[in-house]
Specification:
40% of the residues lie in helices and 25% in strands. The protein has 162 residues and is α+β, with helices and mostly antiparallel strands. Helix 1 (3-24) crosses helix 3.
Length: 162
């Protein structure tokens, strides 16, 4: 098999595994969200993916949390507590957030991020693109299995001739 062909197949296999991982993580209590603004740069870049542990809802000062605000999610750092409320701030923002965050708004604590992968995740969320990619990945897996079987038969014939 040619190197370029192997690289392409590996790329699609990794892409498929990443997609599968993004489907499984939410069931394991890890929320995966895309960062839409630069309020946490340079720590979290615009277009990155944020992985939030939804079981860790009691953050400490300095932790980065994801919380709900109206109909969206915000990922900012906890800078202090005022009673039961959390005061948050984006690292790139000059001032703290206008509204304090209640315990009920906290989705969880951010455990890690992957820069720029959010752009691909947003692209992949389109149903047509997702279907095409899954078809391509399935096709590649079939070709890998078919190629392996063909190579085994060829090796077996070569050994039989000896």
């Amino acid at each position: 098999m040619k190197t370029a062909e192997k690289a392409g197949r590996l790329f699609f296999a990794v892409l498929g595994l990443a997609g599968l991982l993004l489907l499984i993580l939410p069931r394991a209590g890890i929320s995966v969200d895309m960062v839409l603004s630069g309020s946490m740069e340079p720590k979290i870049r615009t277009g990155g993916l944020v992985f939030t542990d939804t079981s860790r809802k009691d953050p400490q000062i300095g932790d980065i949390i994801t919380y709900s605000l109206n109909d969206s999610f915000v990922t900012h750092r906890v800078i202090r507590r005022e009673g039961s409320m959390l005061i948050t701030k984006g690292d790139a923002n000059d001032g703290e957030d206008l509204a304090p965050v209640s315990a009920g708004q906290v989705l969880g604590t951010v455990v890690f991020t992957i820069p720029f992968l959010g752009y691909m995740a947003a692209f992949m969320r389109r149903k047509t693109i997702w279907a095409i990619c899954m078809l391509m990945i399935s096709q590649e897996l079939i070709f890998i299995v078919q190629n392996e079987l063909t190579e085994r038969r060829a090796r077996k014939k070569a050994r039989a001739k000896i």
